[in-house]
Design goal:
The chain is an all-alpha fold and 310 residues long. The protein is 80% helix and 0% strand.
């Protein structure tokens, strides 16, 4: 337990420092946006590229962990939609935000730091594989449901194509793809470039956690919290539990990849949930409260999950 505490306290301690810094105006919104932009555009892509470029890829990778993660994620998404419709009488476009809040994990700003810190470099490959499919699955699905709920079926295809374009231009996805190309082709990387990537990648974990905490301080929190509480239970309890059920009892899997899938499922709702809610004007307040509440509550659930898998 002492080793687990030593792992978790720095992770959430950096988030608290970021949150307090934003609250007391040591960093304004422009500074927070700049830090988030640096993390997403440069630091994390460099870390992922550098890790994947030199990684030894197994020839017989068992893809069951990926099946377990996404089967459980889609089921949790559906439960979120059901809670939004049957439980809170929301329209279909807002139900889509409920589904996203229940299943769309914060894999970048929190998942990467937690997995690499708690599970080590051997967890990189399954983590990168899960991240590579994440946005490309749930973002188009959410857009399709929002448009269908507003009677905009004719615009669904165009919106989904636009979302896929955004995903493919995402620096994090590009970093993963470029690293995979270098790995499989054996292209040599100049020592100076490796040094540059190392510097950028070293900043990824602390900057991502600080940026996550600072970003939380900018979200609106007023209003009914009951939907956020329901989504928090789905995200932090049901989601990782379903991944375990599919992976272990159902598929009979075990090992590092399964641990990574469970830990990533235990991450709080991603900031994209609020961004989608605000962009499409679909339950933005609920989305903001869900992001904050799941992040705060994940202090306990992540400790519990790590205690089980490590």
């Amino acid at each position: 337990m002492n080793a687990l505490t030593q792992t978790v306290i720095p992770i959430f301690g950096l988030m608290v420092i970021g949150f307090v810094s934003a609250r007391v105006r040591l960093m304004d919104e422009a500074g927070i946006r700049g830090l988030v932009l640096f993390v997403f555009t440069f630091s994390i892509p460099a870390l992922l590229f550098d890790s994947l470029a030199v990684m030894t890829l197994p020839d017989d990778l068992d893809w069951g962990f990926l099946i377990a993660f996404y089967v459980a994620s889609f089921v949790t998404y559906g439960l979120g939609v059901l809670v939004g419709g049957a439980g809170f009488r929301r329209s279909l476009d807002e139900q889509a935000i409920f589904g996203m809040g229940a299943a769309f994990s914060n894999l970048v700003l929190m998942g990467i730091p937690v997995v690499l810190t708690a599970l080590g470099p051997d967890a990189s490959l399954p983590m990168l594989i899960i991240i590579g499919f994440h946005s490309a699955t749930f973002m188009p699905l959410t857009v399709a449901l929002i448009q269908a709920g507003r009677g905009g079926e004719s615009a669904v295809a165009g919106r989904i194509v636009a979302v896929f374009g955004d995903v493919l231009r995402n620096p994090i996805i590009l970093g993963i793809l470029a690293g995979l190309v270098v790995n499989r082709t054996g292209l040599p990387l100049p020592t100076s470039l490796q040094g540059l990537l190392g510097f950028l990648g070293a900043a990824a974990v602390p900057c991502a956690l600080f940026a996550m905490g600072a970003s939380l301080a900018t979200y609106p929190l007023r209003g009914d919290v009951s939907p956020a509480v329901a989504l928090t239970v789905l995200k932090l309890v049901v989601h990782p539990l379903l991944v375990w059920l599919v992976a272990v009892p159902l598929l009979g899997l075990q090992g590092m990849a399964v641990d990574v899938a469970i830990v990533l499922a235990a991450m709080p709702s991603a900031v994209n949930v609020y961004l989608f809610g605000a962009r499409y004007e679909a339950a933005p307040g609920i989305a903001a409260r869900t992001v904050v509440l799941t992040t705060v509550a994940s202090v306990l659930t992540i400790i519990a999950v790590l205690a089980v898998v490590t």
